[in-house]
């Protein structure tokens, strides 16, 4: 029978999105709705002496102006998201210090970053609401600003949140083996500082929230452009003190998320609260300037690394002390920071390992996970080190990688640390050596080296760089699915995981269709709505296909079993005499006798005609929650081929190659699309994107004129190779693929640029590789060289 | 507040309305006419999500006032498919090539590509397509499937 998992089934989502009939939050209109605009702080750090809203309140068309005092006693602040608290065994191992860092919904007494919400205007339309923002008078008393992660940890630094004592919000240590012994055995020790800049996920759709309250049944409906509707519901309930069951949160069509929409934001709490308070629907749609300022950023790590290795390139030990500049608040515990610590060794066998991570606070917008969530930072550090070792020993970096890879015969490979979910971190399968070989074959490595020699003679600088990654994907704690067959025989699937471009409606229908032996067209998948299931988690951390896919598989199988039992009653036989395919249940020995899914669904209804065996609940539905034992490790190998214009510092990507393993591929086109799109974002992080604050904490990159997102001119077509090592941790063998594409490009491209400029021995240990930065490095290297001569 | 009368042919239908003179064309299309297929991504003319055709030329509807379109003809993404939902060849090619993921930027791409195909009737090179769509940002697809789709759209249109 035809299987749909593994095939390029066309996307169900496309028709509405291509015809403009999709529904994003901003497209929703409700009668009698008011619109909100938000006054945001122009200061990075200042005391609020007074807010005068009288003129704004009297402006025609304004319903009200809300400041922090108006929320007092009604809306609680954010503290730490419980979803990100550490499991006890991990806590015992790394002995973290995590200080509670509550974030008020609206700035209270003082502001701590530019863009922090200070006041909200509700008005008849957005134009009037914005008019009224200009009439609010706030008097600020500026306070000393700290924007540098090293300055902020000094004893005399201004303390942003005085109750914390200082600006070090979290601290933890991860240790494996005996680091001192490893360093004492080494032939070489290399020390360096490697930085990854602050960037912004920048989905093309900004955030937005609409809320409507019905007094009749105390029902609160909220539409939000979020990756995590269940989390929004939960915090609305907790912080506003509402019955959770009376809240429905819907993420309609969502125009990209990439991590920043995985947080719960103050607006998602206040807008619904105001809809209840004023008994009018309220709409707030973020504009791009607000987005650049107040939607959470990411990355922003600085690593001080020391690595001990032998003459042949074998790494004996690695020490790392890193700082994550989290901006003014952190509600995500150790999420990105621990991801970095856990993934830093990547595909490499490094038996001795000593890492100290500190999350520090500065007067910047808070950070959250963004595509890769701590891994692009770690991979950048590790793969720059591989290249620096190669340089030091005059070896080919491929050789250094090969010497240090975890080899297939070592799998499953115990890393000696816990994963963030509390399970032992084990690389379960894969062949990293073959991955590298496959990538080098596609790249034509040997030929490239010859070509490189030739082009150097003509004063052209081409280079090749690679990077490898592993990624723990499909993290729990669970994801659910409810599958039912309606009275027309159509199958309806509801999932807790909430998509924003990942194609859930298509891929999950493929999984369900295979279980029932029907065409995916006979299956409708709904997601992004808390009314579909009692519990759900969301889409982030490359978890959708793994967790929701497995939940759909589990629920479909349960319902299939139930349908076989009902069919047995209908046909008067036992279940082992039956088989299900093509949407029907047949008698094995007499295939002309069958009952259809539609007939079975009707026979499942309660009542006198019910054919559900005794002891089983009537009904044609099943709900299943998939609880993964732990994450599953995807991996990949990236190769960048670049040309550097030495005179301008401009980097042109000539080729980009990815070989990856994401276990079972549900839909090849969609998987390839995730990789290609991820690489584009990674190229942004490598060459163009950087959120910059000046020393006063003013955001310098507040528009797309300053924050450069790659266009079609900058992104090459990615050449791909595939490996398929099935995951043992879920029934379909899936590993996640959402983030992999974005993890390695900064390292691969930086290495390629260093390789192109190799005669000059430049080291690119900070990003992005902008033309002016690269020009300075080239100039410095040329000067150093001429001094040596 | 100043008000103006506008008479704009939108997707083949003449619309006459009195509106606030300061309304953006994008807000007018979305909020006054309910044509929410045109999306607003950056409101400063860089992302291209709000691209519509004005007398056949691509424009950023977030950088124009609705009154500036008075007496002119506007085409939005809603004009592309047939009434029965049958795709325009460009839409079909986007669907065939997985040239969209979240789909938010897609209407802007479709309108840019429509103008490009009308003004460049011969099959373009990849580089020409890249340049043609370089005014539209996409954060999901990494563009290469969009480039494939544009090439296929030329074939489907023949």
Can you describe what's shown?
The complex is a heterodimer of chains A (789) and B (158). In chain A, 30% of the residues lie in helices and 26% in strands. In chain A, β23 and β24 (584-587) form a beta hairpin. Chain A has 22 helices and 29 strands. Chain A is an alpha+beta fold. In chain A, strands 3-6-1-13-10-11-12 form a seven-stranded mixed beta sheet. A six-stranded mixed beta sheet of chain A has the order 4-8-16-15-14-9. With 158 residues, chain B is of the alpha+beta class. In chain B, strands 2-1-5-3-4 form a five-stranded mixed beta sheet, with helices on one face. In chain B, a hairpin with a 2-residue loop joins β1 (3-10) and β2 (13-20). In chain B, α2 (89-96) packs across α5 (144-157). Chain B starts with a strand and ends with a helix. The model of chain B has no long low-confidence stretch (mean pLDDT 97). At the A-B interface, α1 and α19 of A face α2, α3, α4 and α5 of B.
User: What is the string of helix and strand elements of chain B?
Assistant: EEHEEEHHHH
Count of DSSP-assigned helices of chain A = 22
Alpha carbon gyration radius of chain B: 16 Å
The overall pLDDT average of chain B reads 97
Seen as an oligomer or otherwise, the chain set is heterodimer
Largest sheet of chain B: 5 strands, mixed
Q: What coarse outline of chain B follows from CA principal-axis ratios?
A: globular
Q: Give the proportion of residues in helices of chain B.
A: 25-40%
Number of helices of chain B: 5
Span between N and C termini of chain B? 50 Å
Shape of chain A: globular
- Per DSSP E runs of 2 or more residues, the count of β-strands of chain A stands at 29
- Beta-strand percent range of chain B: 15-25%
List the helices and strands and how they pair.
The complex is a heterodimer of chains A (789) and B (158).
Chain A: H1 14-19, E1 34-40, E2 46-52, H2 54-58, E3 62-67, H3 68-71, H4 88-94, E4 97-98, E5 110-111, E6 117-123, H5 126-133, E7 137-142, H6 149-152, E8 168-176, H7 179-185, E9 188-199, E10 208-214, E11 219-224, H8 229-240, E12 247-250, H9 266-278, E13 282-285, H10 288-294, E14 298-309, E15 315-325, H11 335-343, E16 352-360, H12 375-393, H13 397-404, E17 413-418, E18 424-427, H14 432-443, H15 445-457, E19 461-473, E20 479-485, E21 491-495, H16 504-516, E22 523-526, H17 544-571, E23 578-581, E24 584-587, E25 590-596, H18 597-603, E26 621-626, E27 632-645, E28 650-661, H19 668-688, E29 718-723, H20 740-743, H21 745-756, H22 771-788
Parallel strand pairs in A: 1-13, 11-12, 15-16, 21-22, 28-29
Antiparallel strand pairs in A: 1-6, 2-5, 2-7, 3-6, 4-8, 8-16, 9-14, 10-11, 10-13, 14-15, 17-18, 19-27, 20-21, 20-26, 23-24, 24-25, 27-28
Helix pairs in contact in A: 8-9, 11-12, 12-13, 12-21, 16-17, 17-18, 19-21
Chain B: E1 3-10, E2 13-20, H1 25-32, E3 51-54, E4 57-60, E5 73-75, H2 89-96, H3 106-119, H4 126-132, H5 144-157
Parallel strand pairs in B: 1-5
Antiparallel strand pairs in B: 1-2, 3-4, 3-5
């Amino acid at each position: 029978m035809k299987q749909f998992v593994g095939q390029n089934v066309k996307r169900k989502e496309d028709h509405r999105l291509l015809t403009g009939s999709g529904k994003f939050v901003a497209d929703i209109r409700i009668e009698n709705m008011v619109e909100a605009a938000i006054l945001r702080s122009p200061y990075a750090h200042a005391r609020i002496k007074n807010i005068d809203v009288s003129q704004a309140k009297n402006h025609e068309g304004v319903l009200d102006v809300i400041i922090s005092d108006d929320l007092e006693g009604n809306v609680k602040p954010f503290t730490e998201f419980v979803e990100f608290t550490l499991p006890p065994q991990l806590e015992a191992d790394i002995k973290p210090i995590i200080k509670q860092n509550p974030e008020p919904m609206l700035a209270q007494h003082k502001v701590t970053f530019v863009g922090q919400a200070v006041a909200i205007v509700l008005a008849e339309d957005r134009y009037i609401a914005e008019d009224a923002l200009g009439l609010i008078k706030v008097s600020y008393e500026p306070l000393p600003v700290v924007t540098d992660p090293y300055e902020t940890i000094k004893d005399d630094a201004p303390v942003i949140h005085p109750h914390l004592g200082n600006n070090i919000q979290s601290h933890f240590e991860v240790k494996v083996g005996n680091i001192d012994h490893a360093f004492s055995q080494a032939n070489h020790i290399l020390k360096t500082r490697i930085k990854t800049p602050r960037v912004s996920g920048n989905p093309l759709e900004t955030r937005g929230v609409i809320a409507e309250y019905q007094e009749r049944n105390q029902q609160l409906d909220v539409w939000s452009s979020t990756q995590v509707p269940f989390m929004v519901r939960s915090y609305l309930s907790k912080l506003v003190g509402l019955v959770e069951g009376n809240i429905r949160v819907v993420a309609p069509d969502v125009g990209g998320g990439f991590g920043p929409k995985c947080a719960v934001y103050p607006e998602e709490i206040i807008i619904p609260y105001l809809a209840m308070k004023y008994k009018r629907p309220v709409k707030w749609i973020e504009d791009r300037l607000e987005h650049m300022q107040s939607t959470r950023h990411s990355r922003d790590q600085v690593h001080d690394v020391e690595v001990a290795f032998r003459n042949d390139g074998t790494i004996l030990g690695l020490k790392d002390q890193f700082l994550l500049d989290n901006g003014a608040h952190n509600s995500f515990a150790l999420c990105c920071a621990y991801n970095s610590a856990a993934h830093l060794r990547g595909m490499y066998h490094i038996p001795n390992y000593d890492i100290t991570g500190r999350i520090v606070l500065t007067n910047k917008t808070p950070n959250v996970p963004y595509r890769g969530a701590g891994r692009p930072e770690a991979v950048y550090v590790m793969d720059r080190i591989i290249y620096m070792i190669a340089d030091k020993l005059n070896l080919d970096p491929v050789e250094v990688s090969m010497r240090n890879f975890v080899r297939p015969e070592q799998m499953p490979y115990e890393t000696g640390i816990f994963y963030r979910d509390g399970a032992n971190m084990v690389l379960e399968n894969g062949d990293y050596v073959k991955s590298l070989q496959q990538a080098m074959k596609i790249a034509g490595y040997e030929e490239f080296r010859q070509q490189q020699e030739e082009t150097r003679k003509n004063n052209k600088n081409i280079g090749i760089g690679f990077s490898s990654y592993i990624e723990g994907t499909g993290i729990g704690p669970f994801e659910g699915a409810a599958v039912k067959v309606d009275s027309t025989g159509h199958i309806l699937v509801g999932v807790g995981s909430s998509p924003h471009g990942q194609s859930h409606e298509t891929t999950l229908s493929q999984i369900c269709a295979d279980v029932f032996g029907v065409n995916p067209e006979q299956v409708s998948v709904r997601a992004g709505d808390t009314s579909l299931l009692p519990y759900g988690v969301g889409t982030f951390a490359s978890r959708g296909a793994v967790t929701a896919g497995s939940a759909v598989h589990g629920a479909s199988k349960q319902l299939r079993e139930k349908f076989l039992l009902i069919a047995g009653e209908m046909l008067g036989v036992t279940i082992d005499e039956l088989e299900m395919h093509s949407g029907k249940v047949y008698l094995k020995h007499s295939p002309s006798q069958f009952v259809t899914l539609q007939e079975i669904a009707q026979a499942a209804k309660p009542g006198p005609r019910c054919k559900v065996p005794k002891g089983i609940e009537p009904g044609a539905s099943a709900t299943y929650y998939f609880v993964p034992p732990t994450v599953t490790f995807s991996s990949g190998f990236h190769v960048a081929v670049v040309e550097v214009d030495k005179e301008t510092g401009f980097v042109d990507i000539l080729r980009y190659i990815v070989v990856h393993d994401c276990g079972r591929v549900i839909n090849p086109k969609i998987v390839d699309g995730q990789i290609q799109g991820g690489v584009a974002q990674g190229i942004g992080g490598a060459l163009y994107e950087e959120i910059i604050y000046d020393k006063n904490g003013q955001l310098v990159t507040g528009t797309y004129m300053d924050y450069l997102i790659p266009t079609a001119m900058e992104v090459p077509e990615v050449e791909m190779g595939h490996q398929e090592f099935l995951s043992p941790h879920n029934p379909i063998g899936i590993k996640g693929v959402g983030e992999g594409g974005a993890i390695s490009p900064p390292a691969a491209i930086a290495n390629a640029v260093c390789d192109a400029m190799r005669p000059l021995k430049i080291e690119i240990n900070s990003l992005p590789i902008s033309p002016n930065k690269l020009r300075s490095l080239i100039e410095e290297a040329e000067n150093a060289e001429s001094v040596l001569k | 507040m100043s008000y103006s009368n506008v008479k704009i042919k939108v997707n083949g239908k003449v619309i006459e309305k009195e509106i606030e003179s300061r309304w953006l064309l994008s807000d007018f299309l979305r909020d006054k006419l309910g044509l929410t297929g045109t999306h607003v991504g950056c409101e400063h003319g860089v992302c291209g999500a709000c691209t519509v055709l004005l007398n056949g030329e691509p424009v950023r509807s977030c950088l124009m006032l609705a009154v500036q379109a008075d007496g002119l003809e506007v085409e939005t993404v809603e004009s592309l498919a047939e009434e029965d939902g049958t795709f325009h060849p460009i839409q079909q090619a986007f669907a065939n090539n997985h040239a969209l993921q979240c789909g938010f930027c897609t209407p802007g791409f479709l309108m840019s590509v429509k103008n490009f195909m009308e003004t460049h009737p011969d099959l373009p090179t990849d580089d020409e397509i890249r340049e043609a769509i370089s005014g539209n940002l996409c954060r999901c697809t990494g563009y290469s499937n969009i480039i494939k789709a544009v090439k296929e759209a030329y074939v489907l249109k023949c």
